[in-house]
Design a protein that fits this description.
This protein has one domain: Beta-grasp domain (Ubiquitin-like (UB roll)). Helices cover 8% and strands 30% of the residues. The protein is built from one helix and five strands; from the N terminus they run ββαβββ. The protein has a five-stranded mixed sheet with strand order 2-1-5-3-4, with no helix packed on it. A hairpin with a 2-residue loop joins β3 and β4.
């Protein structure tokens, strides 16, 4: 199981990119933290989610 934003998911074995393709996140406007470390966007395709991982995905919103 992989915990993503506090929710357990069955995403182990997927790349971060594969997981994100199942969501509505706008990749240009998010930051992803995996086990306390920011994942650079260029590594989304090669970062494989593993059992026990904890991810926080934060979306940026414009406004004023």
């Amino acid at each position: 199981m992989v915990k993503i934003n506090g929710e357990n998911t069955d995403s182990a074995g997927m790349t971060l990119s594969e997981y994100l393709s199942t969501t509505d996140y706008n990749r240009a406007r998010i930051a992803v933290e995996r086990n306390g470390n920011i994942v650079p966007k260029k590594e989304y395709e090669t970062t494989v989610l593993e059992n026990g991982d904890s991810l926080e995905i934060v979306g940026f919103v414009g406004g004023g």
